[in-house]
Specification:
single chain; 59 residues; mainly alpha
Length: 59
C-alpha cells in the first residue's frame, strides 16, 4: 500500500525533476569546459540521445 500523500508525491516529483535539471546543467558545463572536437561532441550527443541520428521520413 502506498503511504505517500498527494503533497508528498508532488514533492518527490518536483525534487526528482530538479535533480535531473541540475544534473543536465552540470553535464553541459563539463562538456563545454572539456574543449572537445566535433567528432567527440557528436559521440556524446549520440550517447545522450541515440535517436538523434535517425532521420524522420515524410510519408
Amino acid at each position: 500500500m502506498d503511504k505517500n500523500t498527494g503533497s508528498e508525491k508532488e514533492f518527490i516529483k518536483t525534487t526528482t525533476l530538479s535533480l535531473q535539471l541540475n544534473g543536465a546543467h552540470l553535464l553541459n558545463r563539463l562538456i563545454n569546459q572539456a574543449n572537445l572536437n566535433e567528432d567527440q561532441l557528436d559521440e556524446i550527443n549520440f550517447l545522450l540521445n541515440p535517436y538523434s541520428v535517425l532521420e524522420v521520413k515524410k510519408v
